Amino acid sequence: MKIHARTERLLLRDWENSDLDDYALIITDPDVMKNIGEGKPRPRSDAEAFIKTVLEHQQTRGWTRFAVEHADSGQLMGFCGIDDKMGRYDFGWRYSKNFWGSGYGYEAAAAALWVCQNTFFLTHITSQSYLENAGSIRIIEKMGMVKIGEGTDFGRPLWVYGFKNEWPDGLR
Is 80 exceeded by the pLDDT of residue 25? Predict the structure, then answer.
């Protein structure tokens, strides 16, 4: 298993097939999923498809939404990193609610962003959030991103963020 970054409390690592059960628990939690996509829990089959995709991305390009593991307990906390299914680099995360409110989100985001920019040399990274997701917006802004555009997803308004020096004219 490749470790991409290590912080005092976290490991950002490659995914393993054995992560499936823990990840399935995360995406079936209504609280976790309320600010993602349709805002509804997802079935285990979505976790299976996700794991298949990230395992493939690890092999073909090296970067993905990295698995985030709690360093002390070894528990899968969720993910953090980049996806490109929207035709641009979308930085995002998803965590078990057991790990909310302790600063893990920003800690993982800062480490994953460093890896994406300095190991894989990715630029023009964006992140998006529904307006009511104050926790994610705080992390995005703390990472140094600014609002560069607006949009909708599943009929819900969202803001798109990026680094001002990479998106001087906003999202086009």
Answer: yes
Residue 59 pLDDT exceeds 80: yes
CA 84 to chain centre: 12
- Kindly tell me if the per-residue pLDDT of 86 is higher than 90: no
Cα distances from 119 to residues 34, 122, 141, in angstroms, run: 32, 8, 22
Quote the CATH superfamily of domain 3-121. Answer: Gcn5-related N-acetyltransferase (GNAT) (3.40.630.30)
Would you call 66 helix, strand, or coil by DSSP? strand
d(CA 110, CA 7): 10
Is-above-0.85 flag for pTM? yes
Q: How far is Cα 44 from Cα 105, in angstroms, rounded to an integer?
A: 24
